[in-house]
Amino acid sequence: MTMMAAVKTCFRKYATFSGRARRAEYWWFTLFNFLVSLALGLIDEAVFGAVQPLSSLYSLVVLVPGLAVGARRLHDIGRSGWWQLLWFLPVIGWAILIWWLATLGDEGANEYGDDPLAARGAAVRSRSMVQ
């Protein structure tokens, strides 16, 4: 999955908290948000000084899709999206969440849906059989 595919998927599933998300989808979206926030912060600093209107507005826009992809990513390892509340627990909570978000997802279906990697592999196999 490319960065742009991940960003499109996350914005298309803006408030979809069900299902599963691959590691690539979560981490590409996170990197994209970091880079955009960094660029907007620099623009805000140059144009507005200490006030950060562009960065603040962007943060509000990506809040829901960020939470949604985080929940779907946790679903991929068989955990509830509510575990994202660990972000409020400094250091230990962050370490646990980063570990979980970087962990390989469950193979096969779990209680949150089908394996996104298996679905992709089946699609690739069916396309190769057609050719």
Description:
The protein is mainly alpha-helical. Helices cover 66% and strands 0% of the residues. Helix 1 packs across helix 2 and helix 2 runs antiparallel to helix 3. It is globular, with a radius of gyration of 17 Å. It starts with a helix and ends with a helix.
In short:
Helices cover 66% and strands 0% of the residues. The chain has helices at residues 3-12, 23-48, 53-76, 92-102, 116-130.
Low-confidence stretches: 123-131
**End-to-end separation:** 22 Å
The structural class is mainly alpha
- How large is the radius of gyration? 17 Å
List keywords for this structure.
131 residues; mainly alpha
Task: Detail the topology: elements first, then pairings.
Elements (H helix, E strand, L loop, with lengths): L2 H10 L10 H26 L4 H24 L15 H11 L13 H15 L1
